[in-house]
Amino acid sequence: MRHSRFDTRLGLTATLAVAAFLIGPVLLSVTAGVTRNYFVGLSSGLTLDWIVQVWDLYADTIWRSYGVALATLAITTIIGVPAAWVLTLFPGRLSRLLEELLTLPVAVPGLATALALIVSWGSVGWLRSSVAFIVIGHVLFTLPFMVRAVRAGMQGADLVVLDEAAATLGASRRRRFFDIIVPAARSGIVTGALTVVTLSIGEFNLTWLLHTPLTKTLPVGLADSYASMRLEVASAYTLVFLLMLLPLMVGLQWIAARSTRHGGLGLGAST
């Protein structure tokens, strides 16, 4: 019992230390964003002027980042869920090779991937200057995360057996996919969606080369504010970033938890 209490206290202490190490700098940055003069400190007073200035200058980057993230999520879901099912349905060397090829954009630095896209498609004027070019890069980067999350959910649910049973009862391939496979893999799909959205909103390296002055996203605008504006403005941008991202992450986590719970109940009922 003594060892158990000691281990608990040690684990709690280590967790709090790590949390303080990670959250402390963020809190300092947020504090600077609402301080009139960071170098004077809180004694200079608190203000929301820096946040208003950030919103006036960079509001378009925030909404553009949401649009890019949602478009990336839609495309990765449409491509990733069927791809994960094919890889699950036909395991073997070819499937492993395809999965390894999918992970190449993750292994390769984002700048290299962006450069490859520019060399390949940069001559297409309308595409190079549009947000769609950034969406393509984000899809390449996040698709492996969607495929792996969905495939893990499919393998855990043993869907191959359920699919074969439904086929023997005369269900078409399309009906089996939408009525059995997708609902049973819902938790994996939601987990993949959470990963895709958060990665897309925060992606910087790849976007830095793909963006134009008219297609800046939130992370690019954040870097721009740190490079060319006052420290208080850049810190206020960080605060706006957190205020926009945290509710989205909490909401997706809640949806993922509900999907996991209901998915397990639904699968148990179907079996």
Question: What's a concise summary of this model?
Answer:
With 271 residues, the chain is mainly α. It is 83% helix and 0% strand.
Provide a descriptive summary of the structure in words.
The chain is 83% helix and 0% strand. It has helices at residues 2-33, 49-89, 93-102, 104-107, 110-121, 125-128, 131-156, 159-168, 173-184, 186-202, 205-210, 218-228, 231-270. Helix 2 (49-89) packs across helix 10, helix 2 packs antiparallel against helix 12 and helix 2 (49-89) runs parallel beside helix 13 (231-270). The relative contact order is 0.14. The chain has 271 residues and is an all-alpha fold.
Give the key terms.
transmembrane helix; disordered C terminus; ABC transporter permease subunit; 271 residues; MetI-like; 83% helix; MetI-like_sf; membrane; single chain; 13 helices
